[in-house]
Structure formats: C-alpha cells, structure tokens
Amino acid sequence: MARMGFQAATDEEGLGFAACDDLDYDHRQGLQMDIMKSDDMSGGDLGEGSGEGGMGGGEDGMLAGDSHYQRDGTGPPISGSKASCLGDEGKSPKITAWEAGWNVTNAIQGMFVLGLPYAILHGGYLGLFLIIFAAVVCCYTGKILIACLYEDDEDGQLVRVRDSYVDIANACCQPRFPSLGGHIVNVAQIIELVMTCILYVVVSGNLMYNSFPNLPISQKAWAIVATAALLPCAFLKNLKSVSKFSLLCTIAHFVINILVIAYCLSRARDWAWDKVKFYIDVKKFPISIGIIVFSYTSQIFLPSLEGNMQKPSEFHCMMNWTHIAACVLKGLFALVAYLTWADATKEVITDNLPSTIRAVVNIFLVAKALLSYPLPFFAAVEVLEKSFFCERERTWFPDCYGGDGRLKSWGLSLRCGLVVFTLLMAIYVPHFALLMGLTGSLTGAGLCFLLPSLFHLKLLWRKLLWHHVFFDVAIFVIGGICAISGFIHSMEGLVEAYTYGIED
Amino acid sequence: MIDRPHSGGRAEPTHLLCSAARLGDQIDIYTDASPQRNQCQLSRRKRSRCTQLRGADPEVGDACGQSDERGGGWSLSSCGGPAILARLTVTAEQEGENLSGLSNNPDKEIFVVRDNGTTCLMVEFAVRFIVPFDVLALNGIDLITENAYLALPRGADIEGKCGEQEAQISISWRDNAYTLRIYFVKETRNKGEKIWKVNKVLFVYDSSEQTHFLNPYNPGKHTASSHSLSALVTPAGRSYVCSAKQTLTLISSDHQKGVTVAMSDIQIQPFDISSDFVFSEAYKCITDQREQLEETLPLILGFILGLIIVITLAVYHFHLKLTVVNQPQLPRDRSMYKNM
Fold first, then answer.
1. Model pTM?
2. Interface of A with B (CB under 8 A)
3. What value does the CA radius of gyration of chain B take, rounded to a whole number of Å?
C-alpha cells in the first residue's frame, strides 16, 4: 500500500522523484513514531487476519486504517503488539456482511436438519418451540461473545481490545491463571472443529455409499474419494475464499430444502395435523434436544468473522437475519416433513423420500457436506497455527509463513496432514456419530452457552443491567442442563453400541 | 472314516464318522488334515468324545483316519491310507470341548464320490431348503400355503456317478424321504474354452414326513426340478468356490410351487480331480470377486491419494523456490534508489 501510495503520489502531483522520496520518508518516519508511541499503550489491535505486524504491515494498517478507523464509531487505531502471525506482509481482504452471513449460515444450517422431523415426531410442539428458542438464545450468546471483545477506553468509546475466543478466556482468568482459560478454550475449539471436519467426511462417504449400492466401492473408499476432492482446502488463504464455498453450500442447502418442502406440499392433502403432539416421548426426545440445540453452534467462528468484516457495525444485523432465516427454514422444514409422514417419519428424512427425489437430494447433500468442510477446516488451521506455529508468540514450532507472507511448503504439508488425519479418523473410528454427540454436548455446549455467558458476566459485570444478568445466568443453567443430558444420553448410546456390536 | 469300496466298479459313498469303539470314549479328532502321498498331515488335534456311531444318524465331526474292517469294528488310526479333508463341526449335544471355533458354518458338509479308489466328485456346501406346502385353513375350505424350512443334514447317504462329460451326485436322507440330485455337465463354449456347469437340480421330498411338514393337505412324494438351468459355470479343471449364498428356485410337481434351494460356503469339483480328496485350483464366484475388489479398492485409492499429496507438495515447494519474490525494500534514503 505504501508503494502504491508512493506511485499514486508521483502520478497525481507530478512531483519530482526526489521530492516525493523526501515526502514519503518524512511521512513514514512520522508514522513510525506513531507506531512506537502506540506500542506503549495497552492493548488492542486492528483485528487479526488483516496482516499487521512489521513495519510494512503497520503502515498498511495505518493508511488503510483511516477507513477502518471507526470500529464502533470511535477511537484512534491502536496497532497492537499482539499482532496476528498469519500472513505477515499480505493483507487479507476483508469480508462483507453478506459473506459473513453465508459463513454463519453454513455453520448453523448443517446436516442435522435432516433429523429435525424425527425430533418433532418425538417432541411435538415442544420441538418446534425449541427450534425457535434455540435460535434466539444462540443469537444472543453470539452477540454477547462479540461484546466481550470490546472495552471502553478513556473517552467512553468502544475499542476492540481482544482478538479471539482464546484472548477472552485469558482475560477472564487474568489475575491467577493467566493462560489456563486460553488453553481450555483452545483445546475445546480444536476438538470441536476437527470433529466437525471428520463428520463431514463420514457423512459424504455414507451418502455416496447409500446412493450407489451397486458399485463395488465401500464406504471407506468413498471417504478417500471425498478427501481427494477436499485436498484443495489446504490452499485456503483467507476468509474471503472460504466465504465463496459457504455461499455455494448455502445454495445447495436451499435447493435441498426447496425440493423436500415442495414434495411435501404436493402431498398437502394428506397432512396429519392432528398428529402433532403436546406431550413428549421422554426416552427419545432428549436426543432430539441435542440435535436441535447444538445445531445452532456458530460461536467458534464469530470472533474471527467479526474481526474480518469491513463494517463490523453490521454484525448485529447479520446475526439477527441469519438466525431468523435459519429458524424459519428449519421450523418449516421440520413441520412440513413431519406432517407428511407423521408416524412413519424416519430418523433421517431422506429415507422417507421416494427413490428418485432421494437420489437427487443425496447428490446435493454430498455437495453440501463437501462445501461445508472448508469453514471448520480453515478455522482449525488458524487455531492450530496460532497456538503452535507462531514465532511471534514463542510457541514450540517455527512459523508456517515465510517472510513474504506466503505459506511455507512444510506449512502446506501440515495442512495436508490435517486433511489426511480427518480421513483416517473418519475411516477407523466406529460409531462416529455417537462420539460426535458426546464431544458435541461437552465442547459445543461449553463454547456456545456456558462460556459466553460466563465471560460476559465476568468481563462486563459493571455495565450489565439486571435483565442481562438474568439472561446470562439462565442461559448458563439451561446450557448446563442440556450439556449434562446430552452427555448422559451419548454415553448410553455409545455403551449400547459397543455392547451389542451394532454396525455403524 | 472311509468305506473302502468293495467292488471296483461302482463308486461308493463315503461316510464321515467318529470311530471310537464305544460311545462316550475319548477320541482324537484331527482338523485341517491334508493328504500328502500316503501320509496325513495332521494339525490341530483336539480331544473330544465320540457321540455317534455308524448306523445312527451321524452328525459328527470329521476325522482323518483309516477304516479298519477287522471284525467289523472301526478304529481311528493316526495316519495312513487315504485321508480326507476334514472340517470340524459342533453340535449342541457334543460333550467335552467346545470346538465351535474351528468351523464357521455348522451346516457345512463335504460329500465325496469315489470310484476305483480315487475320488472323482467332491461337493462341499451347506444347503437350506424352503418348501411351500398346502395346509387346510381353519374354516375347512380354504388352502393356505405354509413354508417348511429344511437343511441338508450331515452324514446323509451319498450316491454318485462320475463320467468324462457328465456327472451326478445324489444325496438322500431320512430313509430316502428327501433326495437332492445335482447334475453336472462339461461343455465347450463358442470360443473354444472348456467349462463345466450344473445343468439340472432335482429335489424329491415327501410331505408326509412329520418333522418338517405339519398337517399337509396333500401329503406325498413330490419332485421339484429345475428348468434349463445353467449355474455355477466354472472353467474346466478347476473347482468352484463361493462363500456368498447362491439361490435356486425349483418348480415342484405339487401345483407348481416354487422350492427355494439356498447353497452357501460352496466348494464343488465334479470333474478332473487330480489326487484324492484334493480340490484343484479354486475359481471364485462373481460375488466373492466383487468382495475382494471392495476390500482392495480402499488400499489402492489411499495409495493414489498419498501420491497426489506428495506430488502437490513437491510442486508447491519448487514453485516457491523458483518464484522467490524479493521483499520490496522501500527506500529509506536516496542512496537506495539504485536497488529498486
């Protein structure tokens, strides 16, 4: 940017080479003074992923930062000592609110939508209510999590002082255990993200195997084929490219919804309105609770999404709209599908569909699974690189990125290694869906309900009104109950599966 | 134990029996016996008890041994003489050791037709039958079709005929209440390849037999046979092997009902048996071949994936090396212009 500014200055003003050089030199000296001054102040930075750190980057941030000046409308930009080590020189492009929306939709409208009609079968109206309630709660926890990233500075303006979930956790445990919270959150994040990636590989293998039973290709072989298709994910550089995949994924999801809903509408005459129950099936419903509640988990991605947005002020609006859309679509899908098949509703709604539609839906589901993979993979790579491969923060291993900001070849091999790791886990771990339910109820509930409310209470205690406190405590309690119930049921399911040797 | 043929011409059926003198005696049962010249190679010797004697309906384990006809008694000798391929089975009534782990299919049995002291036809399978028969309904007027489920028992009586181009084996049990007859034929196909196949299967059953048929409407002997069958096609000189289930439907003389014959764990060789009790080279059925393909495919794909990863990494590495971008050194003072 400095170079471009230099050339622009030359062209526009027609100044002599030497004079421009002087001007530029002074300008840069001046900026450097600013940087050094601000380094002494506590604090914030201009957001990760924008590639600050080092003089060039700092300047870029400063020059470009005039437009990024106002985060939440105020505050001088403070370039931080805690800069991201991902991509030193290169400045990754910021994403628009729409792209952030696609990413969030990718995270909250996942594969589990196919199990929602089964949840309504066992839960009746309570299931529908839960879909709406979970959307509201998750939207709220997402917003309070992002609120934890900001602090008031002396002028009363909100400034982004923290960068990621780990930073928030560290800030909460500050006096006594400065990094314990960060480690816990790191581990939980990595587990959740890697398990999500593995799940997508398992699901695509399973779907392809069920779509083509006549071919001699087993589920493991299909998983290997799917991984070969996912290998280009190792080259992902920034959130913008991930957002493109999320957009395609959302389109595939809409197509699936439209297909199924249209088919159900075509059988609208046979809808069984009287079958929607008020009572719940106590044995089977808790599993459905888990499916409904933990399908809205996007909080892991929110700090980095918000940090990469061009206009972070649009974040709240984006959250609202994505959660409303997800809630409406899921509720409609679940209700309509349940009304069509009533008691015959199967655990995965595609089993109820006639074979032609099922084949088409399966193809789109496979496409959706493959296109959903880049987001958690990219997030996992970011988390891993930041915790283990960042020279700046004195981690164990050297930096993955070379001096020119490009990925080193062994950094690429690590990413490929992660892809292969997800493949191996997908092939060799039996009963993966049950295992995922187990970890999901711990890490998912923790990261989505328990920790945001806890951190919000701790960090912003002084600023909270009584109803905020009430909501936070209520969410903490409800989240805890859901986590415990989900954990118990997953354990039961796993034990049963191992005892009876049930085939996956 | 093997019956030695008394006369040279007719092929005698063989019986596989426990050979101790008395019931309840401890005997040695040899599994995985394979003949080597005139020696037995015995492995996995296990102690068991004799539960059946010849004459009863024997459902016993196989043994390697030699008949000893002195005085009509039988003894189990350790080795010597023609041996048979042995597979151990377990019945629920067997005392002593539980040897079930040695055989994975308790219904499988081997049937051997011998001619002139050499084996000429070997059939090893487990067969189940589903035979429909009519039963009078409760109202006394309508006829309901019920199914009888039968299995080919062990130690059934065997008769067989071997030939150059044709062979047949006839297995009967329960005093000829049931008979299964399989006809094999050798053929030369258009392109000159020689094959053998099953061209007829016949199943005779007596629906008045009480143990399997409950209150049949028209009891009596019926024959179910195949029509223009061409199954188990194998290249000549090889044995047919299939672990998957093969199903045939025979049309019965009892109102054209369909009798289902399900054979599993098959190994059959009706022609060109080179040495006693030794199957020639196995020819796997399509289902088995497919399963083998299914198992090797992930390995091949995994190997290809590994190759792709290695090639990608190498290409990227050299791409980085070859396109090293010099860091743009922004001039700090005028003297550094010459570097730009």
1. 0.66
2. 2-3, 17-18, 21, 25, 28, 56, 89, 216-218, 220-221, 224-225, 227-228, 231, 402-404, 406, 408-409, 412-413, 416, 420, 423, 427
3. 30
